[in-house]
């Protein structure tokens, strides 16, 4: 089997790279057209009248599989597989980013407006979740090894290359006092060159060795999706730059500068602190000849010799699935990234820059390039003709690295890893960048002078040269006659102190209830503060406000807290009904004809929802006293419970039994006994 047979795409983990180009250099205020690639807002208010990039490029390499000594790699006969240290894991990752910039230019078109135009060629490869043992196993071939199994699982590999032309516009949004803000946008047209991508799901490869090589087999399971342009292996001169292999993208950026000092101490660098925020590569790219095939292996077994003798990656896949599913190709998604940049002018020409890059494109899915998260801390010295950088950086695919770079007039050269690579024998990356340009500087701005109060109005034009004031008032502060913090030209009541929210006038109290109109929900009608200036409602119109009315929906009296009062006539009516309640003999259960009486009592009680009543039970003298007492209590309780079950609030009712102790007639006659067996209702006052 040829060495690169199943690892044509996996080999990117040998040289995978960081997300950021031009480490250390791009943060320089004199980085020119390279700076606008990172944040398009950098094109505005630059130190250049015009900057022309002739040719520049960067190549970055790092990985989390191989560790090596950088000086050994430069030797002609160096063999990665034999000499490099390996750090295999179940999830090795990698990233490639080759960035070349052709003829490009940026210039100012007005004091607050600038343009940039650049040409660029890029190649990016991502390898995600590669099982490290897969690489070493397949690279050594199948035949001659003992039985082994490669559990690759899920993986993703994407490689895209394209050319782009970008037009950048930048403008100054704010330049006032200590605060400066600029913004920029880049529109890019993309022309595809080549692409290839592959992803696997539950991929498992088993090699069964046999003493007879012809009987050795390879069994594969899982799914592999493989796609790309059909002419990927053509030479560069044969590539078809068809107009249909294209796309569009955009970069957006903002830069804020804090400029507390009026004296310019660092040539054209005017800030003490600079904050940058940008999003790059918002877009996608469509390759005309992109073809996607999906292979399902289903534990298919083939001869190991056939695998070893296969010509290319597709031939191997078709040994296990000769009829792959051919589906619609997918767009190449660009590596959209968020960049956050903080630049501190420590002293004169010495700066400290902190930059963070965050990939916004998801790592899963087909044909998606993404940027690993990266943090870069760069001390630097910069002047008009000289720049020196010491970037210390960390990315999620490798350890810390330190580098060195410089700018000297039209030439710049550097590396984000050179220092680390010279002192370690386990380096997992190397990078270099260089460029040649034609910088034409703008006129040097002299410090502002003859402005004693520092209000940007020169003393010769300042009516109040010792007191800071706005330019539109000829350098004098605006008056504030009533001292309410609102200048007279904006104060509707300039002689009476008022509130800013009321344009300098005091708030009124139209209904004179002590609550200002701005806080009064009923500014035309007096009301208490507790009800936001509105009178309390009286729903039943009985003269008792709802908040104090115990019966807000039923008209009552003030004396009875808004509830209707129970009269003697009502109590008499209740007792008239109560006298007709009939119980079963010697029991506390009702006779059938009694239920209509009880319902009538329920209706009356509901008319007086705040009144409380006592239900009293009485018996005649027949039987034992203890039994009569118990029976009277049970019968009173039965009436109470019925009333509660039919909607009368339990808190309003109580029950008591008096047995035969309170007769109202002679117990020696039948008629008297009938009168003594009774239920009475008493109003509790």
From TrEMBL:
Key word Transcription regulation present: no
Record field: compositional bias (Basic and acidic residues): 512-549
Domain OmpA-like: 570-685
Entry-linked InterPro entries: Bact_OuterMem_StrucFunc, DUF5723, EF_Hand_1_Ca_BS, OMP_bac, OmpA-like, OMPA-like_CS, OmpA-like_sf, Thrombospondin_3-like_rpt
Alphabetical list of Gene3D superfamilies matching this protein: OmpA-like domain
Keyword terms: Cell outer membrane, Membrane, Signal
Region (Disordered): 501-549
CDD domains assigned: OmpA_C-like (cd07185)
Subcellular location, record wording: Cell outer membrane
Pfam family name, one: TSP_3
Superkingdom assignment: Bacteria
PANTHER family (UniProt xref): LIPOPROTEIN YIAD-RELATED, STATOR ELEMENT OF FLAGELLAR MOTOR COMPLEX
Protein name: DUF5723 family protein
UniProt source species: Flavobacterium hankyongi
Taxon lineage: Bacteria, Pseudomonadati, Bacteroidota, Flavobacteriia, Flavobacteriales
């Amino acid at each position: 089997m040829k060495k690169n047979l199943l690892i044509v795409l996996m080999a990117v983990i040998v040289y995978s790279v960081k997300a950021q180009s031009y480490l250390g250099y791009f943060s320089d205020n004199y980085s020119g057209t390279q700076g606008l690639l990172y944040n398009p807002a950098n094109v505005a208010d630059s130190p250049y009248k015009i900057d022309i990039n002739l040719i520049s490029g960067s190549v970055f390499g790092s990985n989390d599989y191989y560790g090596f000594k950088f000086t050994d790699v430069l030797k002609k006969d160096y063999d990665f597989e034999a000499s490099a240290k390996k750090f295999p894991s179940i999830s090795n990752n990698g990233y490639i980013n080759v960035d070349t910039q052709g003829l490009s230019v940026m210039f100012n078109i007005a004091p607050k407006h600038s343009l940039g135009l650049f040409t660029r060629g890029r190649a990016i490869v991502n390898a995600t979740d590669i099982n490290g043992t897969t690489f070493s196993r397949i690279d050594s071939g199948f035949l001659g090894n003992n039985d082994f199994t490669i559990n690759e699982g899920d993986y993703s590999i994407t490689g895209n290359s394209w050319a782009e032309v970008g037009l950048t516009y930048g403008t100054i949004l704010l330049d006032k006092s200590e605060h400066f803000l600029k913004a920029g946008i880049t529109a890019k047209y993309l022309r595809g060159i080549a692409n290839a991508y592959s992803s696997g799901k539950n991929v498992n490869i088993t090699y069964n060795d046999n003493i007879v090589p012809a009987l050795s087999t390879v069994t594969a399971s899982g799914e592999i999706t493989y796609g790309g342009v059909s002419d990927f292996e053509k030479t560069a001169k044969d590539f078809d730059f068809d107009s249909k292999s294209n796309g569009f993208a955009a970069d957006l950026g903002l830069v804020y500068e804090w400029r507390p000092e009026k004296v310019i101490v660092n040539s054209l660098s005017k800030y003490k602190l600079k904050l940058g925020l940008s999003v790059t590569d918002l877009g996608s790219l469509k390759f005309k000849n992109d073809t996607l095939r999906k292979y399902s292996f289903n534990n298919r077994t083939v001869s190991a010799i056939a695998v070893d003798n296969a010509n290319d990656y597709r031939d191997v896949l078709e040994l296990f699935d000769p009829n792959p599913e051919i589906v619609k190709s997918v767009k190449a998604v660009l590596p959209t990234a968020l960049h956050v940049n903080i630049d501190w002018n420590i002293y004169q020409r010495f700066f400290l820059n902190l930059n963070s890059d965050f990939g916004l494109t998801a790592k899963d899915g087909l044909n998606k390039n993404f940027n690993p998260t990266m943090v870069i801390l760069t001390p630097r010295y910069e002047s008009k003709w000289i720049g020196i950088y010491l970037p210390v950086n960390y990315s999620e695919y490798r350890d810390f690295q330190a580098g060195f770079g410089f700018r000297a007039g039209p030439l710049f050269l550097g590396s984000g890893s050179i220092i680390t690579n010279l002192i370690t024998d386990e380096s997992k990356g190397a990078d270099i960048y260089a460029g040649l340009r034609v910088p034409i500087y703008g006129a040097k701005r002299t410090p502002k002078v003859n402005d004693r109060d520092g209000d940007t109005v020169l003393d010769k034009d300042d009516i109040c040269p010792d007191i800071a004031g706005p330019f539109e008032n000829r350098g004098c502060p605006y008056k504030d006659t009533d001292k309410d913090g609102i200048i007279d030209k904006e104060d509707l009541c300039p002689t009476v102190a008022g509130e800013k929210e009321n344009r300098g006038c005091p708030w009124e109290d139209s209904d004179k209830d002590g609550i200002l109109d701005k806080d009064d929900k009923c500014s035309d009608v007096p009301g208490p503060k507790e009800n936001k200036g509105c009178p309390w409602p009286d729903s039943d119109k009985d003269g008792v406000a709802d908040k104090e009315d115990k019966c807000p929906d039923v008209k009552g009296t003030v004396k009875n807290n808004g509830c209707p009062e129970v009269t003697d006539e009502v109590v008499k009516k209740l007792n008239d009904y109560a006298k007709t309640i009939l119980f079963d003999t010697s029991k506390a259960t009702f006779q059938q004809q009694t239920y209509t009486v009880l319902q009538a009592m329920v209706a009356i009680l509901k008319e007086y929802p705040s009144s409380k009543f006592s239900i009293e039970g009485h018996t005649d003298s027949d039987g034992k006293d203890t039994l009569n007492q118990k029976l009277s209590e049970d019968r009173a309780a039965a009436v109470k419970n019925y009333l509660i079950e039919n909607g009368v609030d339990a808190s309003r009712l109580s029950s008591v039994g008096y047995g035969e102790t309170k007769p109202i007639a002679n117990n020696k006659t039948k008629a008297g006994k009938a009168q003594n067996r009774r239920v009475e209702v008493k109003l509790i006052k």
